[in-house]
Protein backbone atom coordinates (compact mmCIF):
# COMPACT_ATOMS: atom_id res chain seq x y z
CA UNK A 1 0.00 0.00 0.00
CA UNK A 2 2.90 2.38 0.61
CA UNK A 3 4.05 2.00 -3.01
CA UNK A 4 0.61 3.08 -4.16
CA UNK A 5 0.74 6.18 -1.96
CA UNK A 6 4.23 7.10 -3.18
CA UNK A 7 3.23 6.69 -6.84
CA UNK A 8 0.11 8.80 -6.26
CA UNK A 9 2.17 11.59 -4.65
CA UNK A 10 4.64 11.48 -7.58
CA UNK A 11 1.75 11.55 -10.06
CA UNK A 12 0.17 14.56 -8.33
CA UNK A 13 3.54 16.35 -8.19
CA UNK A 14 4.07 15.78 -11.95
CA UNK A 15 0.56 17.03 -12.67
CA UNK A 16 1.14 20.21 -10.65
CA UNK A 17 4.53 20.74 -12.37
CA UNK A 18 2.95 20.30 -15.81
CA UNK A 19 0.18 22.76 -14.96
CA UNK A 20 2.71 25.26 -13.60
CA UNK A 21 4.75 25.03 -16.83
CA UNK A 22 1.59 25.48 -18.92
CA UNK A 23 0.53 28.53 -16.90
CA UNK A 24 4.04 30.00 -17.25
CA UNK A 25 3.95 29.62 -21.06
CA UNK A 26 0.43 31.06 -21.35
CA UNK A 27 1.32 33.94 -19.02
CA UNK A 28 4.40 34.87 -21.07
CA UNK A 29 2.38 34.83 -24.31
CA UNK A 30 -0.33 37.00 -22.76
CA UNK A 31 2.31 39.45 -21.56
CA UNK A 32 3.72 39.70 -25.08
CA UNK A 33 0.22 40.25 -26.51
CA UNK A 34 -0.48 42.97 -23.93
CA UNK A 35 2.76 44.75 -24.88
CA UNK A 36 1.85 44.64 -28.57
CA UNK A 37 -1.64 45.97 -27.84
CA UNK A 38 -0.20 48.89 -25.88
CA UNK A 39 2.04 49.76 -28.82
CA UNK A 40 -0.97 49.55 -31.18
CA UNK A 41 -3.00 51.81 -28.88
CA UNK A 42 -0.22 54.41 -28.97
CA UNK A 43 -0.05 54.23 -32.76
CA UNK A 44 -3.82 54.61 -33.09
CA UNK A 45 -3.78 57.67 -30.81
CA UNK A 46 -1.03 59.17 -32.98
CA UNK A 47 -3.01 58.49 -36.17
CA UNK A 48 -6.15 60.04 -34.69
CA UNK A 49 -4.13 63.09 -33.62
CA UNK A 50 -2.73 63.45 -37.14
CA UNK A 51 -6.16 63.00 -38.76
CA UNK A 52 -8.02 65.58 -36.66
CA UNK A 53 -6.86 68.62 -38.70
CA UNK A 54 -7.96 67.10 -42.03
CA UNK A 55 -11.43 65.88 -40.97
CA UNK A 56 -13.20 69.14 -42.03
CA UNK A 57 -11.49 68.94 -45.42
CA UNK A 58 -12.63 65.34 -45.87
CA UNK A 59 -16.20 66.34 -45.06
CA UNK A 60 -16.00 69.11 -47.68
CA UNK A 61 -14.58 66.63 -50.23
CA UNK A 62 -17.43 64.22 -49.50
CA UNK A 63 -20.05 66.96 -50.01
CA UNK A 64 -18.44 67.98 -53.30
CA UNK A 65 -18.26 64.34 -54.39
CA UNK A 66 -21.97 64.00 -53.67
CA UNK A 67 -22.75 66.98 -55.90
CA UNK A 68 -20.60 65.58 -58.70
CA UNK A 69 -22.16 62.13 -58.34
CA UNK A 70 -25.61 63.70 -58.59
CA UNK A 71 -24.65 65.48 -61.83
CA UNK A 72 -23.11 62.42 -63.49
CA UNK A 73 -26.30 61.14 -65.17
CA UNK A 74 -26.87 64.56 -66.76
CA UNK A 75 -23.25 64.80 -67.87
CA UNK A 76 -23.39 61.27 -69.25
CA UNK A 77 -26.50 62.09 -71.29
CA UNK A 78 -24.90 65.25 -72.66
CA UNK A 79 -21.74 63.34 -73.60
CA UNK A 80 -23.81 60.69 -75.41
CA UNK A 81 -25.52 63.45 -77.39
CA UNK A 82 -22.18 65.00 -78.36
CA UNK A 83 -20.69 61.68 -79.43
CA UNK A 84 -23.72 60.67 -81.48
CA UNK A 85 -23.75 64.09 -83.21
CA UNK A 86 -20.06 63.93 -84.14
CA UNK A 87 -19.80 60.28 -85.15
CA UNK A 88 -19.91 59.91 -88.97
CA UNK A 89 -22.56 57.69 -90.45
CA UNK A 90 -21.22 54.51 -92.05
CA UNK A 91 -21.41 54.41 -95.84
CA UNK A 92 -23.56 51.71 -97.36
CA UNK A 93 -21.53 48.73 -98.54
CA UNK A 94 -20.69 48.55 -102.25
CA UNK A 95 -21.98 45.77 -104.48
CA UNK A 96 -20.06 42.59 -103.75
CA UNK A 97 -17.69 41.53 -106.50
CA UNK A 98 -17.27 37.79 -107.10
CA UNK A 99 -13.92 36.47 -105.99
CA UNK A 100 -11.44 35.52 -108.69
CA UNK A 101 -8.43 33.29 -108.28
CA UNK A 102 -5.17 35.21 -108.15
CA UNK A 103 -3.23 32.91 -110.51
CA UNK A 104 -5.94 31.83 -112.95
CA UNK A 105 -7.31 28.31 -112.90
CA UNK A 106 -6.23 26.02 -110.13
CA UNK A 107 -4.52 22.80 -110.98
CA UNK A 108 -5.53 19.69 -109.11
CA UNK A 109 -2.75 17.95 -107.25
CA UNK A 110 -4.54 14.65 -107.35
CA UNK A 111 -3.07 14.01 -110.79
CA UNK A 112 0.45 14.37 -109.42
CA UNK A 113 -0.31 11.83 -106.71
CA UNK A 114 -1.17 9.09 -109.22
CA UNK A 115 1.45 10.02 -111.82
CA UNK A 116 -0.86 11.54 -114.44
CA UNK A 117 0.59 14.45 -116.41
CA UNK A 118 -2.00 16.46 -118.42
CA UNK A 119 -0.99 17.65 -121.91
Automatic annotation (TrEMBL):
Q: Which of UniProt's keywords are assigned here?
A: Membrane, Transmembrane, Transmembrane helix
Top-level division of the source organism's lineage: Bacteria
Presence of the UniProt keyword Membrane in the record: yes
- Work out whether the entry's keyword set contains Transmembrane: yes
| Residue numbers spanned by region Disordered | 86-119
Feature: compositional bias, Pro residues: 89-99
Segments crossing the lipid bilayer: 6-25
This chain's protein is named Uncharacterized protein
* Species, as recorded: Actinoallomurus acaciae
Amino acid sequence: MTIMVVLSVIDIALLIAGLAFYLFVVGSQLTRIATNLEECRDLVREIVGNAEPIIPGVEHINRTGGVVAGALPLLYGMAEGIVSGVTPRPEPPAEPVPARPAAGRRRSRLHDGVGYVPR
